[in-house]
From TrEMBL:
Annotated ranges, domain Glucosyltransferase 3-like N-terminal: 9-167
Gene3D superfamilies: Glycogen Phosphorylase B
UniProt keyword list: Transferase
Positions of the Glucosyltransferase 3-like C-terminal domain: 189-350
InterPro entries: Gtf3_C, Gtf3_N
Pfam families: Gtf3_C (PF26337), Gtf3_N (PF26334)
Protein name: Glycosyltransferase
Domain of life: Bacteria
Length: 354
């Protein structure tokens, strides 16, 4: 534990538990920060967004301004305050931080919205621009997903010395699902996450091949799902691991089987998808797009395979022997032990503190 005058703090919201990875990633970071000796400062916020009515906007705007002022008033001068980025009501937090120039803001990036979705409506896009172009550069340190994201932020004018590499998101588990008996190897591939046609349109275009795709997640249009895909429902992130009775986990986004395309597909060039951490925690080797930022981590640690397109998966699996697969499996189980214990964020915090 740090001495009082060096103690770190973080803003903690009540995210709840949802059938997607959004709350899981942030709740896990909260827990790892607590375990690392950082003190939470509770903040009330409109989880799920502010309603469009003028009265609701005025009410929450005032409440967020006062709330953030109270939060920052509790932090001693020259102390570290970790903010999960983008913060709820970041436009109001950006205003309040000007009144507390002696607090060292550390931004822990979950998403860069200006990269992820350039097609937002004007108001939402303005919030994203405030988050990424005004609030983020003021940070004392920035914990980034990977080297690619670090290079991108450096190109945007942020000092390289501010940037810390997370490498991959942790995925805390109360139960270790990584060594469950998944049954006989049967060329099964998990696709987990938001299965809406807008975000994961490619799943509705997968043609027949000698591979079984097992789908888990919300917003699936079941009427459009065809073989070799099979929909298995949606589960809480904390229990999903025990249902992933497959051999690989696919990390892919966009509307095309030929490449990761569109806003969400192109975003994989920069981010670490949280579903990759789910697969690792569950002991599943990964299949990732060759041009995705996460591919470097997969290759370096030999925990999966890279492909240029979805149709290439069949031939790739044809070339994998049992000994090849066992090696990938053993490597990913070792990595699973790390992400389940918060190893990567703890390491990033140590690097940031040094």
């Amino acid at each position: 534990m740090k001495e009082l005058n060096e103690k770190g703090y973080f803003i903690s919201y009540s995210y709840g538990e949802q059938l997607n990875a959004g709350s899981k990633a942030k709740n896990d970071c909260d827990q790892i920060l607590r375990d690392s000796g950082y003190e939470p400062i509770k903040m009330k916020a409109p989880i799920g967004g502010i309603k469009k009515s003028l009265l609701s906007k005025i009410f929450w705007g005032f409440r967020l301004l006062i709330g953030y002022w109270k939060c920052l008033s509790m932090v001693p001068k020259n102390s570290i305050l970790i903010v999960q980025h983008p913060a709820v009501g970041v436009e109001f937090l950006n205003i309040i931080t000007r009144l507390f120039p002696n607090i060292k803001i550390v931004s822990l990036i979950h998403d860069l919205e200006t990269l992820r979705d350039a097609g937002w409506i004007t108001k939402s896009n303005k919030r994203a621009q405030i988050a990424d172009y005004k609030f983020l550069p003021k940070s004392y340190k920035i914990i980034c997903h990977n080297q690619v994201m670090m290079s991108y932020l450096e190109e945007q004018g942020i000092d390289r010395d501010k940037l810390v590499n997370l490498e991959v998101f942790d995925y805390l588990e109360d139960n270790d699902f990584s060594q469950l008996d998944r049954g006989q190897y049967n060329r099964r591939v998990i696709i987990a996450g938001n299965l809406s046609p807008k975000k994961s349109g490619y799943i509705y275009s997968i043609s027949k091949m000698n591979v079984n795709f097992e789908l888990f997640g919300i917003n699936c249009d079941e009427d459009r799902i065809q073989k070799p895909c099979h929909y298995n429902g949606a589960y809480s992130p904390n229990e999903l691991g025990k249902y992933l009775n497959s051999d690989f986990g696919l990390v892919w986004d966009g509307d095309s089987v030929a490449t990761c395309s569109g806003a969400t597909g192109n975003y994989t060039r920069y981010n670490n998808p949280h579903k990759a951490s789910l697969y690792i925690a569950s002991g599943l080797p990964l299949i990732v797009w060759r041009e995705a930022a996460i591919s470097e981590f997969v290759i370096k640690n030999n925990i999966g395979i890279v492909v240029d397109n979805i149709n290439q998966i069949e031939s790739k699996l044809d070339g994998i022997t049992k000994s090849d697969y066992d090696l990938l499996k053993n490597n990913v189980i070792k990595m699973s032990e790390k992400v389940q214990k918060g190893y990567f964020l703890k390491k990033a915090l140590c690097s940031m503190e040094e």
